[in-house]
Each structure stands twice: as C-alpha cells, then as structure tokens.
Write a structure and sequence with these properties.
With 238 residues, this protein is mainly alpha-helical. The protein has one domain. The protein is 70% helix and 5% strand. The chain has helices at 17-38, 48-68, 74-92, 117-139, 141-146, 156-189, 196-236; strands spanning 7-10, 13-16, 99-100, 108-110. The protein has a two-stranded antiparallel sheet with strand order 1-2. Strands 3-4 form a two-stranded antiparallel sheet. It is globular.
Length: 238
C-alpha cells in the first residue's frame, strides 16, 4: 500500500514490529474477552456474557459435528474456539483505523495482522502440522506414514503435493480477502487530501465498506475454522 514496514534485524532474522504488535494485541484481547465472558459463570440460567461464550462454543461444536461427525473432543474443540476468536479479532484490527507515520518514507504501524501473508501462511502451516499431530496421536506413526501411499502407492507424490497446496490455499485465501479490504479502505481514506467535497462524498462509501469488512472478517474466520476441522477429519478418518 505504498508504506514501509517497521522492521528490525536480530540474530540475522528480520522481524516486522507492526505484525508483532497487532498479533500480540489480538491474542491479549482474546484472553481478556474469554476471561470477562466466563468469570461469573453460574450452573443455572446463564447471564448474557456467559450466554455469549456458550454460543461461541456451540457454534464451533456445530462446525465439528458437520465436518467430522464428533464434537466431544475437548482438545480439538478448544482449538477451534481459540482460533475462531483470534481470527475474528485479528481480521478486524485494521478496519476502524490504521496508524501510519508521516515523512519521506511513511511506515505502517497498525493494520490487521492477517493482512500479511507471512501471518496467514504461518497459521496455515501450524494447522497442517496440528492435523498431522492428531493423526499420529490417534493412529500412531506407522499409520501416519502409510496414509501417504493410499489408496495407491503411486499417489505418494500427489499426496505430498496436496499438503503444500492445502497450506497455500488455506493461508492465501485469508490473506487475500483481508488485504484487499484494507487496500480499499486506504484508497477511500486517501480522498481526504483531495478536498472537503471529495472527502465528504467518500464518507458514506467508507462506512459501508467498513461494515462489509466486518462481515468478510467474520466469514473468513468461519471458513478458516471450518477448513481446519475438515483437514483434521481427513487425518483422523480410519
């Protein structure tokens, strides 16, 4: 989007400070929201905050039922709830505003972390490894390696390529949608410098697009979690 990144090099590794900042804030927000929604749980009729958390958990439980036919695995269930909350918040961080320093080389300090392909592809890699871990945990290491030769041994190469293709499509799908939304918001925000009349005319489209970005952020979080459950279902299928 024409802006540089605040990067530092440590131990010959380059770190993007904006991604570290927003990813950390998204994780902290997930923890705080989960804590606030569950701190006053009651065994009887739930209060409105507890009811919201129970709705999120039931929502993920229904995704598990539809994707893999089971919903009583707490290990997978907790992963789905955490992933859904984190992605929803991370997708929306850059929607209300962005922080860009002024100067000869503007630097972007605040945006949605999922608007960066490094973040989304890393999440996708983690999910693929997570599904393989569950396969090994349930069926054992022998079953895991033999699964790459099914249904026919010559399909080994295709099964390996599928893992890489799945990782790329899972990560790039999320990145593309969130990044495109923020590019559009940046273009609309750029009309401020074109004069008061142009800026006023762009105000309504900007609010509409922000609402649409919230919708897209929620849908993409749902799709990512659903595909995660589908991939896990493929690995645990006997």
């Amino acid at each position: 989007m024409g802006h540089e990144r605040p990067q530092v090099v440590l131990f010959n590794l380059t770190f993007d400070l904006s991604i570290i900042l927003t990813s950390t804030i998204a994780a902290i927000l997930v923890f705080l929201i989960a804590y606030l929604l569950t701190r006053n749980t009651t065994p009887g009729a739930p209060n409105k905050w507890q009811n919201m958390m129970e709705w999120i958990m039931e929502f993920v439980k229904n995704i598990m039922n539809d994707s893999m036919g089971i919903s009583n695995n707490l290990f997978i269930w907790s992963t789905g709830v955490s992933l859904l909350m984190y992605l929803f918040i991370a997708n929306l961080l850059g929607v209300p505003f962005s922080i860009v320093t002024t100067g000869e080389h503007p630097v972007t300090w605040w945006k949605s972390p999922t608007a960066d392909a490094h973040v989304t592809v890393t999440l996708a890699i983690m999910i693929i490894f997570y599904s393989h871990y569950i396969d090994i945990r349930i069926h054992g290491i022998k079953h895991f390696f033999l699964s790459f030769f099914k249904p026919f041994k010559p399909l080994f190469i295709i099964n390996i390529v599928e893992q890489f293709a799945t990782t790329l499509t899972l990560g790039l799908r999320l990145f593309g949608n969130i990044y495109a939304g923020e590019v559009m918001l940046t273009l609309l925000a750029g009309t401020v410098s074109q004069g008061i009349l142009v800026a006023a005319l762009a105000t309504i489209p900007m609010f509409i697009w922000q609402a649409f970005c919230i919708f897209i952020g929620a849908i993409q979080a749902y799709i990512f979690v659903t595909l995660t459950m589908v991939y896990i279902a493929h690995r645990i299928a006997d």
